Hints:
Layout (H helix, E strand, L loop, with lengths): L12 H13 L4 H5 L4 E3 L5 H12 L4 E3 L3 H7 L9
Parallel strand pairs: 1-2
Amino acid sequence: MSLVDGDSGEISPVLEVVRQRWIDLGIVDAGVASGVTCLVFYCGTGWRSSLSLLVAHLLGYRAKNYDDGFYGWSWDSKNPVEYV
């Protein structure tokens, strides 16, 4: 199953399920839906969050990925890290 129909350009039902899940979880609010707010994804090294970035773009949301991930962030002593 494709994520986007090549002929019509419409997103697949699978991505509509993801869209609704993100709305239910509060990831997508009015700001994100209107394009005013940009989603920012990150993970440990940046590769897993890049999948979310791709999905967000396919859903039409403004999104960015912190490519270096927490690993890169935490190795720079100028960046704050709070341990709780």
